[in-house]
Amino acid sequence: MDLHRPECVLTNAKGDIYTADWRGGVAHIHPHGGQSFYPAQAVDGEVLKPNGIALLRDGSFLLAHLGAERGGIFHLKRNGITVPWLRQVGGVELPPCNFVVEDASGRFWVTVSTRQSPRALGYRKSCNDGFVVLVDAKGARIVADGLGYTNECVVDRTGQWLYVNETFTRRLSRFAIRADGSLGEKEVFAEFGAGTFPDGVVQDADGGFWVTSIVSNRVIRVSPEGRQEVWLEDSDPNHLAWVEAAYQANEMGRPHLDDVKSRHLRNISSLAFGGADMRTAYLGCLLGDALPTFRMPVAGHPPIHWSYP
Q1: d(CA 22, CA 49)
Q2: Taking a C-beta distance cutoff of 8 angstroms, is the pair 120, 169 a contact?
Q3: Non-local CB neighbours of 159 within 8 Å, separated by 6+ positions
Q4: Residue-level pLDDT at 274
Q5: From its phi and psi, is residue 277 left (phi > 0), alpha (psi between -120 and 50) or beta?
Q6: 129-148 per-position pLDDT tens digit
Q7: Closest residue by Cα to residue 93 from 113, 118, 73
Q8: Residues 6 or more apart from 303 whose CB is under 8 A from it?
Q9: If 0-12 CB within 10 Å is exposed, 13-18 middle and 19+ buried, where does residue 306 land?
């Protein structure tokens, strides 16, 4: 497919597939074959590094910029016009940003994994400086802080809960969403064991959550009651043991993420339900150049962008 670090993957009802692309933009896989690439303009001389992406109603995109030192959310039109959308919160410049998603109320949720620099210092059990930003009609504000390497998040199908992956404290946590957009106290919905580092999360039509784990290349379904079931894994036991030992010793770093030993999957980071019946899974991969797929036992819950172009 000639993709470049397709960390985040999105699908829609028409059969379009969009991925974040490390060349600095969004790759578009068309329903009947062929690809397009929408490059973002450099901002302040810096090529944008999209990690998470959001598809908007008019067909344009929001990009979560995972810069070496700086972050922010940027608006990209398909003709390449790129403008800052969110650079600061409360007068403080955003660190490298991980993810952005819209909900059914037209609000946007942004995650920042860590304030550490370099970010690899956040690959620790003690990591507690990730946060979530809400952007709505009242502006942008931090609504959750002190999280363990905040990664993908999703508002559930009821609209009442925000679910958030905390990668390096190995949790799927949730917050009740109040009427004004503020969040209740954090509740740990699922805790994961050795070898699992939760990254991506989406909900299925039955209310379960599908979590992707980097390093171990696991796909885990967490039931509405919090029970876990591993549906897929592609890892080398010796490599996974090496990573786990480094994690437990608070010595985990980039080599543990960048040299994953596996047969097929290249460090899976996200999952999107697609296809006419929403039963095909598309896997985003940090080290990949293509999107692995497999058939799901249940259909996905349509994300807000499902009907967008």
Answers
A1: 6
A2: no
A3: 103, 104, 105, 177
A4: 98
A5: alpha
A6: 999 999 999 999 999 999 99
A7: 73
A8: 10, 101, 202, 272
A9: middle
pLDDT digits (tens, 9 = 90+) for 85-110: 999 999 999 999 999 999 999 999 99
- Fill in the amino acid letter for 45: G
pTM here is: 0.97
Contact 14, 290 (CB under 8 A): no
Confidence of residue 2 (pLDDT cuts 50, 70, 90): confident
Closest of 276, 295, 273, 215 to residue 10, by C-alpha: 273
How is residue 255 annotated by DSSP?
A: H
In single-letter form, the type of residue at position 204 comes to: D
Question: Who's near 261: CB < 8 A, 6+ residues apart?
Answer: 235, 236, 238, 239
Q: Is-contact 49 39, C-beta < 8 A? A: no
